[in-house]
Structure formats: structure tokens, C-alpha cells
Amino acid sequence: MVKIDIVSTLQRLISGIDESIIIFDTKGWILHASDSLNRLLNEDDLMNRSIYDFIEGNADHVRLWLENLSNAHFKDVKLNMLRNKHVFPARLIMAAWSVSDGEFIIMASIVDATYIERKKRDLLRKTLTIEQLSKSRKIRDGKLNEAIYEILEMSSKAVQVERVNAWLFNEDATLIECIGNYDTSIPGLVDQDSLPRIQMPNYFRLFETEKIIISTNSMDSEITRELRNNYLIPNNIHAMMDVPLRIEGDIIGVICFEQLDHSREWTLQDQKFGLIAAQMVSLSVETNKRKLIQQQLENALRQEKRLMIETNHRIKNNLAITTSLMRMQLDKCKDDFHRSLIQDAINRINSIAALHDLLSESSGAHRIHFESYAVELLLGLQASLSDPNKPIQLVYTIEACEISSSLAITLGLVINEAVTNSYKHAFNEQSVGMIRVDLTLKGPVGQLIISDTGKGFEPTAKHGQGLEIIEGLAQHIEAELKTTTNAGSTIELNFRLR
After folding, report:
1. pLDDT digit string (tens) for 157-185?
2. Does residue 264 lie within any of the structural domains?
3. Quick count: other Cβ atoms within 10 Å of Cβ 455?
4. Same structural domain, 415 and 449
């Protein structure tokens, strides 16, 4: 009697619930089933049937629980059940009530897990697709056509639609151009004509809302009415999901998922995946643009370097011709004064030519290693100015540094003038002597000291031609110039590196 009362109470309790509810005893015999459960199992009447009749395979885990209810009154299991002899995944949630000593009745909810399993598989498929696309070298390397094909093909499989395509607006947004159209029935990307704004102004205005455009039944939808005759019908498209493409917040186009033959409901998972696929397309477009810009810059840089190298090579050749012509005039000189003037000019030209020689061989067209330039310059001066009857020693210490070509040529001319002056004027009455050239670096400042052990210069000679040239060169690079004439002469130049 107690058992009957409890069953009646539970029946009244669940009578208004639209769920698949069942009441059975510890032997599995069904005492009551809701109308929803009858529909779920496709049965007219479940009374006097056993729950085990509808469990596919081994049901021991349910039977053992029913036989040991004294220890547990609640159980949630996943199992396979039968409907018209067809198997479907289900979830059985059971709760037991004690009706007398050792006797129980069980109320359970049966949930068809087919949709849940399908949803899980759908989520797993989309997740794996996103993971694969995130590792794509085609996207990362900016190979636009290959990247677009990969994204569209994998998106088609992930969302399970027949067509996926990507579109970009032109500069003035008067039309939208297809950059990739994937169709499962045709290998490779399919050609697709551009769509002009003038033919579908309302559809274009939808993009300005920056929202996903969804049509479940595109043929009859108001939002896609403008596409019906020239796009939907020719391509047999019955449902669409258009997701905006953005770069730095601006809409640049759209990725469109298209269902053929029948209408379709677009799930929240579909929309979230569409947003990620749109990001992948936008990344591919942006990476490709950056790659093209980088290539243009690299090409321009290579061209600039070639032009600079060619220019320096031509200047070097022209200076060499000029030097040769001056040497011809040097041989015709009839006195030492004019011979000295021409030789000084030749040395100055050689100091400039040595720089252009390095620049024509350098990979960096505007900067050179000053140590190599200075050493070559000093060796050239020593060869042209040394006198076997007056062995003057030329020593130098040049700290390695890379400086601009304009600074290098100025310092080279200073060295040329100072060393030439020392060779020609510092040792008139001496048979031996030494000239030193030292370049040291102190952070952003360089110090050039050129000294000799000669007689020094007279105060009245301080503004001779050589020193005037050095003063002008120092002003040109905004350097601090100091000259002293104790125990020989010293020229000190402090300048900023650049």
C-alpha cells in the first residue's frame, strides 16, 4: 500500500514535466513512464516492461546498483539504449526512495545523448581545425593564395558546409572582390566574379554594423534578397553566414559560409569558429601585405646599394684619371715649388679616392671601417712623401670603429694635411724624426692626435695654408681643435662619432 501511494505521489509530481521520466522497482520493472519517454523510445505503452529491455549490451552496472541500494541512493551512468532496435547513446540519472525495509522504488531521467555527442564531436572537429591552422606555415610565411585555400578547405570541413569563400573590399568600397572560393565538389579554388555595391546597397550596409550576417533560409530572407537572382539561385545557396574580416579594427572584407540545397541553423559554435576563421584570413592578408612591403623595401635597398657602389666606383675611377693627369703635369714641373703644390693636390685626391675604394667594396653604402681606411691612407702618404736621405718614422694606432663616410673623408683630409705638413716642414734640419697618428674612442666621442718630434711651427706660421685647411675641416664636423708646439707640434681633434 505504501509503495502504491509513493508511486502515485511521484506520478503527480512529474505529470507537468516535459522530460523523459521513468519509475521502476529494484528488479527493473517499469511502474510508470512519462509521455516524453514513450516518444523517446517510440513506444505506446511501457507499463509491465523491464528497463533492461531497452538497455543495449551488458547492464550489470545498473543491476548491481539496484541490488545494493542500502549503500547508495543516487547514480548517473552513460550507456547505450535501444529505440526500434536501433542503438543511441543515453544518460540514465537514477534516484531511489525507500518504501519499506529493504524495498525501494527508483525514479530516473533518460536523456538522449545523441545531440550532446554530436555537439562534442563538432566542438572537437572545430578545435582541431583551429589548432592546425594556428600552426600553418602558409599563413605565417604570407603565401596568400595557399593560405586562403588551406583556411577555406579546413573551414568547410569543420563547419560541414559545401562552400566557403573570402572577399575583400576594393579601396573605395564600391565592390567586393573574391580572393578565394572553395567548393567541395570542385578541386582547387573556383573563380567568382566581384559583386558591385550598386547592385546590393542594403547588403553592403549590413557590413557597416560590424556584426555576423546570418540567414537560415537565404532564398526567402529579407537581408539576402538582393543576392537572390545573381548569386543565390545560380549557386544553389540556401543558407549563409558572413563573418567580417578586420585589420586593426577596420572591416576589410568578409568570409562567407554557404549551405547548399537546404536551409540551416547556424549554432553559436559555428559563429565562434567563423570569427576565428575570419581572424586567420585577416592574418594571412596582413602578413602577405607586410611581406610585399618588406620585399619592396629590400629591393629598393639593394638597388640603392648597387647605385651607391656603382657611383663610388665611378668616382674612384674619375679620381684615378685625375691623379694620372696630375702626375703627368708633375713630371713637367721645372721647380720644386710647383712640384710640391701638385703633389699635395695628388695626396688630397688620393685620400678621397681611398675612401671611395672602400665604399665600392663595402656592403653598407654609408658607413665604413675607419681603421682600414686610415691605414691605407697613411701607407700612401708614407710612400709619396718619404725621403731616403731623411728617414722619418711614421707610427700609428687607430682604434677600430665604424663611422659615416662623410666623417671618414673629413678625418682623412685632416690626417693628410697634418702628416704632409710634418713631413715637409717639421724636420728641415733633422736627419731623423717621428710622426705619430693616434685615434682613440671615449664613448660617443673620438679623439684624433697627430704629433711629430720636429721643430714645431712658428707662431706667425700658425695660420699657414695647411692649418687653415685643418681648421675649416674641424668646423665642418663641429670638432674641438687644439694645437701645441712644445717639443714638436701636436694637433688634437675631439669630435662626436656618427
Report:
1. 999 999 999 999 988 888 889 999 999 98
2. yes
3. 17
4. yes
pLDDT on residue 428: 74
177, with CB counted inside 10 A (0-12, 13-18, 19+), is middle
One-letter amino acid at 274 equals G
- The answer to whether position 450 is within a domain reads yes
Own/partner pairs, 47-53, CB within 8 angstroms, 24+ separation: 50/24, 51/22, 51/24, 51/108, 52/28, 53/82
- In eight-state DSSP terms, residue 42 is T
Specify the number of domains making up the chain. Answer: 3
Q: What confidence score (pLDDT) does residue 10 get?
A: 64
Find the CATH number of the domain harbouring 493: 3.30.565.10
Reading the block at residue 379, the C-alpha cell is 701607407
Q: Alpha carbon 421 to chain centroid distance? A: 58
Instruction: Report phi then psi at 126, rounded to 5.
Output: -70, -40
Which helix (H) or strand (E) segment holds residue 57: the answer is none
Bridge partner list, 369: 402
Would you say 191 and 209 are in contact if contact means Cβ atoms under 8 Å apart? no
CA atoms within 13 A on the CB side of 330: 16
Higher-confidence position of 317 and 418:
418
Residue 205 CB neighbours (<10 A)? 10
The total of other beta-carbon atoms located within 10 Å of residue 391's CB is: 11
Query: Which pLDDT does position 462 carry in this prediction?
Result: 47
For the purposes of burial, counting CB atoms within 10 Å of the CB of 387, is it exposed (0-12), middle (13-18) or buried (19 or more)?
Answer: exposed
Whole-number Å distance between alpha carbons of 255 and 179: 10
Consecutive H or E run containing 375: helix 370-385
Give dist(CA 17, CA 22) in Å, integer. Answer: 12
pLDDT of residue 494: 93
Nearest one of 150, 130, 128, 129 to 139, comparing CA atoms = 150
Number of C-beta neighbours around residue 213 at 10 A: 18
How far apart are the C-alpha atoms of 452 and 426, rounded to whole Å? Answer: 7
Owning domain of residue 443? 366-498
pLDDT at 463: 45
Residue 259 confidence class, pLDDT cut points 50, 70, 90 = very high
Phi, psi of 472 (to 5 degrees): -65, -40
Residue 232 DSSP one-character state: I
Whether residue 491 is contained in a domain is answered as yes
Q: How many Cα atoms are found within 13 Å in the side-chain-facing hemisphere of 102?
A: 0
pLDDT of residue 363: 54
Can you tell me whether residue 171 is helix, strand or coil? coil
Helix (H) or strand (E) holding 159: helix 144-159
| Chain-centre distance for alpha carbon 336 | 68
Lowest mean pLDDT among 32-46, 143-157, 445-459: 445-459
> Would you give the DSSP letter of residue 211?
S
